């Protein structure tokens, strides 16, 4: 019996020794034969390399819409907003070439790949302080001081009101995977995002409690504010703080884009249709409630031109009508969908005015809300509206000159696009 046990122990020892020899031989072969194809920098991140890594993301909007409607009939009603911005064509999120070049200079390809893979780049970016936990945010900030927010909700900025998060954490794999696999092209659709609202790069902000607020916010834009697309800071005290380049103390600098918005009392297509005068001009006291210009700036270098060109054509100013005036804004015939130009225009306006919230006539450039109204008085009753801007109307903002007439001035949805 003892002899059998001894033989078993000897045999087992030999097997273990053989396996260990095989493993040792394979390790030596791997080091020599693969020529150290996988080095330490390709597994995890090396502190010095990740600390010096540049910012990886570049994002931009390609459509901005302004809805001038305000008051109890619009505030907190579905489909209403003050500003909505998104990326649907050339805009979106892309990876900066400088980050890719830097990362590839610090990483070695993972065998059997011969080049650094997207998986390696994703793993690397998530561990860099300059990029970790970066979430895009849309807000209204101060020109020259992007860490100062417009806060009409109170003393401290409120999430979902004064600023909104766009998509999710960019270093979450559900978001960064399509970005890194696009090899530099902009991505604006993320099918694996947590919620349906996070799948599209889009956000909206509402300052429509009353027309006085709407008027004041427009003046803020004209004088000192900008619509901003920034990135949340890395573990900062304030959730709304704009991420700034490491070591930069210039308060005018941050990562992201700024959009300077200009407003005016400008003619809309419905006025030309209603007046029969292609040269019609707005009455003197019409409000400055149409968005007529967008200038985009790169917040990393705010004094230089970004090179982006935006257009805010007259043809994309839609008058907002009351439900009881629907006869003046009849549906376009179904046959119009055969026209490619018509379909293109419908697609653009429908990005921000959903069919479950708004009826639209492209031909007459008018829209009607399915719920809510722009024209309620303090008693909650609908007031008559002057849709022809060449005629006199009253606006009703305290301290603002207006006409002593019965009809309210019309409100508008204005759409601007990045060329």
Summarize the structure.
Helix content is 23%, strand content 21%. The protein is built from 8 helices and 18 strands. It starts with a helix and ends with a strand.
List the keywords.
18 strands; six-stranded antiparallel β-sheet; about 425 residues; elongated; alpha+beta; disordered N terminus
SSE diagram, text form:
Elements: H1 2-33, H2 47-51, E1 57-60, E2 63-67, E3 83-86, E4 92-95, H3 97-106, H4 118-126, E5 136-142, E6 145-149, E7 163-166, H5 173-181, E8 202-205, H6 211-223, E9 225-231, E10 256-264, H7 269-275, E11 290-298, E12 310-311, E13 317-320, H8 340-350, E14 358-361, E15 366-369, E16 385-386, E17 408-409, E18 411-418
Notes on the structure:
The chain is of the alpha+beta class and 419 residues long. It has one domain. Helices cover 23% and strands 21% of the residues. It has eight helices and 18 strands. The chain has helices at 2-33, 47-51, 97-106, 118-126, 173-181, 211-223, 269-275, 340-350; strands spanning 57-60, 63-67, 83-86, 92-95, 136-142, 145-149, 163-166, 202-205, 225-231, 256-264, 290-298, 310-311, 317-320, 358-361, 366-369, 385-386, 408-409, 411-418. The strands form four sheets. Strands 2, 3, 8, 12, 13, 14, 15 and 18 form an eight-stranded mixed β-sheet that branches. Strands 5, 6, 7, 9, 10 and 11 form a six-stranded antiparallel β-sheet that branches. A two-stranded antiparallel ribbon has the order 1-4. Strand 5 (136-142) and strand 6 form a beta hairpin. Helix 4 packs across helix 5. The longest helix has 32 residues, at 2-33. The chain is elongated. The protein starts with a helix and ends with a strand. Residues 1-46 have low confidence and may be disordered.
């Amino acid at each position: 019996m003892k002899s059998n046990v001894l033989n078993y122990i000897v045999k087992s020892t030999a097997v273990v020794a053989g396996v260990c020899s095989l493993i040792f031989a394979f390790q030596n072969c791997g080091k020599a034969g693969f020529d150290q194809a996988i080095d330490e920098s390709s597994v995890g991140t090396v502190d010095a390399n990740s600390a010096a890594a540049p910012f990886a993301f570049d994002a931009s909007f390609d459509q901005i819409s302004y809805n001038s409607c305000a008051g109890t009939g619009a505030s907190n009603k579905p489909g209403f907003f003050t500003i909505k911005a998104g990326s649907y064509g050339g805009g979106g999120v892309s990876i900066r070439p400088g980050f890719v070049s830097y990362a590839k200079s610090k990483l070695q390809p993972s065998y059997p790949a011969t080049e650094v893979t997207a998986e390696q780049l994703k793993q690397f970016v998530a561990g860099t302080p300059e990029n970790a936990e970066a979430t895009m945010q849309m807000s209204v900030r101060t020109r020259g001081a992007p860490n100062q927010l417009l806060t009409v909700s109170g003393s401290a900025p409120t999430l979902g009101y004064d600023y909104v998060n766009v998509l999710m954490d960019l270093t979450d794999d559900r978001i960064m995977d399509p970005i890194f696999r696009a090899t530099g092209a902009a991505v604006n659709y993320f099918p694996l995002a947590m919620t349906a609202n996070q799948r599209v790069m889009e956000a909206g902000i509402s300052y429509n409690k009353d027309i006085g607020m709407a008027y004041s916010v427009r003046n803020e834009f004209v004088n000192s504010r900008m619509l901003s697309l920034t990135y949340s800071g890395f573990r900062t005290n304030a959730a709304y703080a704009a991420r700034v380049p490491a070591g930069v103390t210039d308060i005018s600098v941050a990562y992201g884009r700024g959009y300077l918005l200009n407003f005016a009392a400008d003619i809309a297509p419905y006025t030309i249709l209603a007046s029969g005068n292609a040269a019609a001009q707005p009455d003197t006291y019409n409000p400055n409630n149409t968005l007529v210009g967008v200038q985009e700036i790169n917040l990393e270098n705010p004094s230089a031109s970004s090179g982006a060109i935006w257009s805010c054509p007259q043809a994309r100013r839609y008058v907002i009508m009351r439900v009881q005036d629907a006869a003046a804004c009849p549906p376009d015939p179904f046959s119009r969908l055969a026209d490619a130009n018509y379909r293109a225009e419908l697609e653009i306006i429908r990005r921000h005015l959903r069919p479950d919230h708004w009826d639209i006539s492209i031909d007459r450039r008018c829209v009607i809300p399915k719920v809510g109204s722009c024209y309620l008085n303090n008693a909650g009753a609908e007031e008559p509206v002057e849709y022809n801007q060449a005629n006199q109307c009253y606006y009703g903002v305290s301290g603002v000159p207006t006409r002593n007439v019965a009809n309210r001035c019309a409100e508008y949805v204005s759409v601007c696009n990045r060329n």
